[in-house]
Amino acid sequence: MNRIKPFAYDWIVWALFLALPLVIFWQSATSLADQGVAQGGPMENAALFPRMIAWGLLGLAILNAGRLMLGRIANSSPLTPTATTRLALVVSGCFVLYLLTLPYLGYHLTTPVLMALLLNLFGVGRLASLAGGVVMSLVTAAVFQGLLNVVLPVGIFEITGFG
After folding, report:
1. Helices (H), the chain
2. pLDDT in tens, 55-87
3. Is residue 133 part of a domain?
4. In a domain? residue 103
5. Domains held by the chain: number
């Protein structure tokens, strides 16, 4: 059986981490631009905050790549193939998948599913995960759409909640 070396997990996690800002930049340039909410001031620019976060993530990814290339890691990687490492990889993969489906299905369809899945992966029961996912996504949408007037992705079904 061919097993992945612990050091390889560092690069897998790095690649998933790097994918997040790249997907955010892609969505800002395509989906949010198509909706007309990726330019203007902070109140009209739904892509401003995600782009700021993406630049921070990209900077951290570059620093981590340098650390990995220079061998600035312990001889035994902290990312040995354990249940926790696998959980981190699954959660990172879920976020990347979420960001890829968000422009097509919209916030109100994808976010409750992601939240419920994450809660369940972290050990919360199925019914509580489902209820928690719905409540967390609605509260977040109420704050961003209702109070801050931020345009959330509506997807192909054009579902909006508080705007």
Report:
1. 6-29, 31-34, 48-69, 83-105, 107-121, 126-141
2. 998 998 898 888 878 776 555 555 456 667 778
3. no
4. no
5. 1
